[in-house]
Amino acid sequence: MSFLSIEHVIKDYEEYRALHGISLSIERGEFVCFLGPSGCGKTTLLNIVAGLHFPEQGKVCCLDEDITYLSPAKRKFGIVFQNYALFPNLTVAENITYGLRGKEWSKARCNERVEELLTLIGLPHIAFRYPVDLSGGQQQRVALARAIANNPRLLLLDEPLSALDAKVRVTLRDELKVLQRKLGITVIMVTHDQEEAMALADRIVVMNEGRIEQVGTPESLYLKPSNRFVGEFIGSMNMLTIPQWAQGQTIGVRYEQVLVRPATEEVLVLPYTLVVRIVAWHLMGAFYRVELLMSDQSTQLYADIPYQHFLDQKLAEHSLVAITIAPESWCIFP
C-alpha cells in the first residue's frame, strides 16, 4: 500500500486542460519533487493533493483513504508557500502556534513546541520578533516550522526557496534535506529548478504540458532520460544527428561526456572521433564550457572541461580539435 496515490487525475480550467490523467504513487518517508517549466501543471497537482483545488476526474488517496474532496484542514497536511504567508501582526511564536489553536494545546505545551521547533530550524532566540524583523531565509524557516508544528503526515512545499538569493537558497536547501531525514516526514515539493530537485529528491516527477514525462531517481533521469524533453530539461545535453553513428536517430550526449583533445593522427583514427572547430569558451567556475562547431558548419555542441585540464591542453580559439564520444554515454532518441 502506497502512502499517497494519485489516480487518473484530470483538471480543467475554462480555456485549457491543466492535467491530463495524472497517476502517481508516493511512499512514506519519500522526498518527491514535481519538476517542470512554468505552466506545466506541477502547482495545480500540488494544490489538488492539498485539497485547495478539486479534479474533474480521478482521485487522491492517502493510506487507502479517498481524500479527493476532503477539506484541507482534515487532511492533516502541512504546506509552505513561496511567499512565506506569515501573519505580519503576529510574533514568530504566534505564527508557529497559529494552527494549534483550538486543538486542545495548552499554553505551556505551545511554548514548549515553539522552543523545540525554533531550535530545530536553528533560530532559538527569535520567538518574540515579528516577520518584518526577519530576513527572507529566516521567514522561510519560520514558515517551515509552522507547517510542521502539528506533526503533519505530509509536507507540501510550493517553490519554497525561489524568492531567496542564491547563497541562502543553497544553505536552506541543505538544511531542508537534513530536517526531512531527521523527521522522517513525507515531502512533496514543487520546483522549476533542476539543480534543487537533483539535490533534494529521492525521486523526481518531470512534468510538461500537464503530463508526466518521466519519474525516477535523480541519477536515472540524468543518465537515462526517456525522451528529448527530459534530457534537455535535466542538466545540459547535446542533441546530435550523425548518420554514420546512428542512422535516422538522435544521439543525446551530456556536455561532460564530450572528450576534447588535440587533433593528432593517433587520436583521429580512434572510433567515434570527429574533427570540430572551437568557437568560444566560457569559465563556469570549476570547469570551462567550450562551444564547438561540427564540419557541416551548422551543428553546434558543447563540452565541459575541468578547469585545470582545460589549461593543460592549451587550446586555441578557432582551432581544429578532435572530439571522442563513447557509445556508452549516448542516449538514443527517435
TrEMBL record:
<feature type="domain" description="ABC transporter">
    <location>
        <begin position="4"/>
        <end position="234"/>
    </location>
</feature>
<keyword id="KW-0547">Nucleotide-binding</keyword>
<dbReference type="GO" id="GO:0016887">
    <property type="term" value="F:ATP hydrolysis activity"/>
</dbReference>
<dbReference type="GO" id="GO:0005524">
    <property type="term" value="F:ATP binding"/>
</dbReference>
<dbReference type="InterPro" id="IPR017871">
    <property type="entry name" value="ABC_transporter-like_CS"/>
</dbReference>
<keyword id="KW-0997">Cell inner membrane</keyword>
<keyword id="KW-0378">Hydrolase</keyword>
<keyword id="KW-1278">Translocase</keyword>
<dbReference type="GO" id="GO:0015697">
    <property type="term" value="P:quaternary ammonium group transport"/>
</dbReference>
<dbReference type="InterPro" id="IPR050093">
    <property type="entry name" value="ABC_SmlMolc_Importer"/>
</dbReference>
<keyword id="KW-1003">Cell membrane</keyword>
<dbReference type="InterPro" id="IPR003439">
    <property type="entry name" value="ABC_transporter-like_ATP-bd"/>
</dbReference>
<dbReference type="InterPro" id="IPR027417">
    <property type="entry name" value="P-loop_NTPase"/>
</dbReference>
<keyword id="KW-0067">ATP-binding</keyword>
<keyword id="KW-0472">Membrane</keyword>
<keyword id="KW-0813">Transport</keyword>
<protein>
    <submittedName>
        <fullName>Glycerol-3-phosphate-transporting ATPase</fullName>
        <ecNumber>3.6.3.20</ecNumber>
    </submittedName>
</protein>
<dbReference type="InterPro" id="IPR003593">
    <property type="entry name" value="AAA+_ATPase"/>
</dbReference>
<dbReference type="Pfam" id="PF00005">
    <property type="entry name" value="ABC_tran"/>
</dbReference>
